[in-house]
Amino acid sequence: MSRAHLGVLVGLASEARILSPHLPAGSAIKLSGARLKGAEQATEALIAGGTTALLSFGLAGGLAPGLPPGTLLLPDRVIDASGIAYPTDESWHERASLALVEFQPVTQPIFGSDIPLATLTDKQSWHRRSGAVAVDMESHVLARAARRAGLPLLIIRAIADPAERTLPGAALVGVRPDGRSDILAVLSALLRSPGQLPALIRLGRDAGAATRSLLGGARRGGFDGFGMG
């Protein structure tokens, strides 16, 4: 039997750096740049490259109250804005749960959004409508492609901004299409609205907690694709 070829979709270059040293040989990582078109193009590239298993990995925003920054997520499905649910692969999810058990991952659904959910109102609204505990901008794109191609799907995310907080506007302009940080755009936004600085510092601290959780998970389970098989 040929070995599975893992294809990973992330939003940011920093997420790719967390995972890439810990993946099995032959794996591929593509970046969306936190943009819908970027996610679609990256997913197409993964499948065209011969991927046989798909993983969505990276940061997420909280939708359910009470999930602190750094909470590791291993959702059993992703739900898109039309209400369609895309389950992750049951066997792979079970093996990943065992590999990551020390992190006590949350297995409830995640919501896939085409745009950032920045405000408390948006987060609360989509939590009620979808029942999901968190949101990201890549998993639903990858899930649709996985269903079309008949490929197994797994999602591993970590809460970077909890449901109780609004994202500062400066954070929303801070990612280039290639997934790298756009420091100049952030500084420009801060110059126009310096009152965002405390929230931006807090977001950096929260994202640091999420990064540590993702790194711990990558070190624990990445070597075999989190039980990819």
What does this structure look like?
The protein has a single domain, classed as Nucleoside phosphorylase domain (Rossmann fold, 3-Layer(aba) Sandwich), CATH 3.40.50. It is built from eight helices and nine strands. By secondary structure, the protein is an alpha/beta fold. α2 packs parallel to α5 (139-149). Strands 1, 2, 3, 4, 5, 6, 7, 8 and 9 form a nine-stranded mixed beta sheet that branches. The model has no long low-confidence stretch (mean pLDDT 94). The chain has helices at 13-19, 36-48, 90-99, 120-130, 139-149, 169-172, 183-192, 197-221, and strands at 6-10, 28-31, 53-62, 72-73, 77-79, 85-87, 110-112, 134-136, 153-161. It is globular and about 50 Å long. The N and C termini lie close together (11 Å).
Largest sheet: 9 strands, mixed
Structural class: alpha/beta
Subunit arrangement of the protein: single chain
Strand content: 15-25%
Instruction: Could you tell me the CATH topology label.
Output: Rossmann fold
The tally of helices reads: 8
The CATH C-level class name:
Alpha Beta
Question: Under the CATH scheme, which architecture would be assigned?
Answer: 3-Layer(aba) Sandwich
**Mean of pLDDT:** 94
Count of separate structural domains: 1
The secondary-structure element order is: EHEHEEEEHEHEHEHHH
Measured between the Cα atoms of the first and last residue, the distance is 11 Å
Work out the helicity level: 25-40%
Q: Report Rg.
A: 16 Å
